[in-house]
Each structure stands twice: as structure tokens, then as C-alpha cells.
Amino acid sequence: MTRFLFLLIILWSFTFNAQNTAVSSNEKLVYTASYNMSGILTDIAQVTMETSNVQTSKATLLRLKCTAATYSKWDDFFRIRDLYESYVSPKTLKPYLYKRNINEGSYFKAMKYTYSHKTNTIKSVQTKKKNQVENKDFKFSLGAKDIVSTLYNIRLIDFEGMNNGSQKTLSIIFDRKETKAYITYLGKETINTAIGTKTCYKISIGSQSKILEGSSNNVLWLTADTNKIIVYGKFKIPVGNGELKIKSASGLKN
Amino acid sequence: MKKIFTILALITSFLAIILAVLPVSNLAIIPAVLALIFGLLAFYFSKKTGQVKKIIQFTFFLTIMALAITTYKAVFTKTEVANTDELEATETKSEEDAIEELEELEIDDIEIDESELEDIEL
After folding, report:
1. How far apart are CA A228 and CA A146, in angstroms?
2. Separation CA A76–CA B3 (nearest Å)
3. What is the model's pLDDT at position B27?
4. I need a surface site. Which of A122, A136, B25, B56 has the fewest CB within 10 A?
5. Taking CA B78 as the corner, what is the angle to CA B72 and CA B79, rounded to the nearest 5 degrees?
6. What ipTM does this complex have?
7. Is residue A56 a contact partner of residue B103, using CB atoms and an 8 Å limit?
8. Do B102 and A43 count as a contact with CB atoms less than 8 A apart?
9. Do B122 and A74 touch (CB under 8 A)?
């Protein structure tokens, strides 16, 4: 599931700052994640991506929340309850705080990044079971983002201005390391989804690490409108391949 | 030949019934179809020799059971997420903690400066 989420995050990750014209503060996207078992796709988990405003005494931030939960029939075999969050500027989606809470059966891991954009450093805190806490500060390069904020930042890309086959490079911070990912624009395609027939931007993704197998095997379809929401995705990881299909979408900006 | 197909039919029909009762019930279709093929072949060769053993009928019974369970589960089982109370509690607590942590950040860190609005070459 972590790998699956990593893929999802990579697909959304981006290394530029532009004004947010695509993500609203009350958006909710629900997906079904399926895994290919012996040629038969089996629904495994529900992935939800939600946004909401968070008010502090100094500013209003946008909370980007991604959760993954296995369907009840799988809970007795492997139970996943993962939470990924990023608190970003509502205008530019620049991240200030990132939190990750992994709860997969007996495995638990929490991670927190506090960004300092002035010094380009991140203060991280990793917690594992039995209160194993590990603090680490590290530098990050300009434009590098955690997986959740990059996942939303991809929606700010101007695909209309891209030619078929043109590529963009992303820097994603995952497990306190920066990884390069490559997005290739493959043109427009019309597909049927649970929320209707949509004309989409089709993009493929590859990564520097071995977490994704081959760039042509990991493909995303984003609606070719101003919202640019992910409606369908295909992925291949070392342990197999699967799909991500949209189930419902509400609170869209446009 | 008769023996081989009977053994194969028995193995695949058992596999089909085991998969049918697990959450991966839709995978049971593959061994169930194989069990039917092997069972029919075993039946054909047994007919040729004049005696059809009960074990072949038993494999058909198992296969039909497996297909019935698979079909029932595919039609009537709802794909839903349950027991999310713990996750919801984690989400609420995480947000409360995050607000506290964000309060500690310098206001300059949160305010959006002009450089933020500039596109950065990839």
C-alpha cells in the first residue's frame, strides 16, 4: 500500500510554484484501488483525497489529506489505515507541514516534516512503535515537495502548453530522501469513468528509484479541464500491477 | 489418462472451493473452469472403460459449489470500508496537533511572498 501511495504521490508531485486555480478547500475525491491477481483485478482499498481550510491565529492554510483503508473483507488478512497530510499555502500549494501516519497490521510508522523555506531545511521526526523517536534535519532542493503536496501540485501544470512526448522532472521527498521522478505528457484521451465520460490528459511517470517499474507502465489520466483531477491510473510495482479508479468527486473548484 | 484427469480435477476443484471462501473469491473461477474441463475429460475416459467412479461426480459437486459461492459473493457482497473510527480519531488528533505546530511557526514562514508566485523552471 505504501508503494501504491508513493506512486500516487509521485504522480501528483511537481516542482514548481504557480497560483492555485485547480484545488478548492472542500474537495473530496474517492478512489478504488485494485490489484491484479492472476489476471483478475480485485478491489483492495479505498483511497480518499480531501481538502479543507485550517485556521491558525496567523494564517489560513489548506489541509490536503489522503487516506487509504482496506475494504472490510480484507481487514482480517491485512488491515491498512494510512493517513497522509500536507498543510499548504492555499494560493500556491507550497507546503509548510507534512505528516504521515502508517498503520498496517502490526506495522506502525509516523513521519513529520516541518519546512523552513528560508533556509531550505526540513526538521523531521520519525516515530516507530515502542516510542522509537528519531529526529533528523536535512536540506532540500528548490521545488522539492512531499508526496501529498506534489500530488496536488501536478494539477497546476499547464498541459495545454505541452507537446506530446515532452517531459518534466519532479523532486519528491519521501522517507527523508529526495527522489527524481519524470512525467511524460502523452496527449489527450477520452475515457469512461464512474463520474461520466471525460476527456483527459494522459501522462506517464517514471522514477529514479526502483519503486516504479518502467515509465510506460505507470500512467495517469487527469481531466482535461481546469480541475485536472485524476480519474484513472495504472501502475506497476515490483510485486505486481494494479489500477486506481475514481468512484466519486465533490466540491470541485470549477 | 483417466487417473491423471481425475487427480487433476480433484486438485483444481479443492483449490476452487478454498479460493471461493477467501476474500479472493473471484480467483476461484480459474481453477473451477479447469476442474470442469478435467472432470469432463475424466468422465469421458471413464465412460469409455465402462465404469464412472463417484470421485468424478464429487469433483463436479465441489466445482459447482465453488462457482455458486463465488457468484453469490460477487452479487451480494458489498465492497465497503468498515471500522474507520480509529482512523477518524487519528485524523482529528493529527489536525489538532498540526494547528499547534503551525502556530509555533513564524508568521513570516506562513505569509506568501512574491517569489512564491513565480514559476520555477523544471
Report:
1. 20
2. 39
3. 86
4. A136
5. 120
6. 0.81
7. yes
8. no
9. no
Task: Judge whether A56 and B95 are in contact, CB under 8 Å.
Answer: no
What separation in angstroms does the CA of A12 have from each of A23, A39, A160, A175, A233?
A: 12, 27, 17, 17, 11
Helix (H) or strand (E) holding A242: strand A240-250
Scanning A146-165 for CB atoms below 8 A from B yields none
- Give pLDDT, residue B117: 42
Inter-chain CB proximity A116 and B117 less than 8 Å: no
Q: Any residues with CB less than 8 A from the CB of A129 and at least 6 apart, and which?
A: A108
Please give the residue that has the higher pLDDT: either A208 or B96: B96
The three cell numbers locating residue A201: 490528459
Nearest to A140, CA basis, from A97, A186, A179: A179
For B28, what's the count of Cα atoms within 13 Å in the CB-facing half-sphere? 27
Which residues in chain A come in under a pLDDT of 50? 9-16
- B29 part of contact set with chain A, CB < 8 Å: yes
Cβ neighbours of residue A236 closer than 8 Å, sequence gap 6 or more? A212, A213, A214, A217, A218
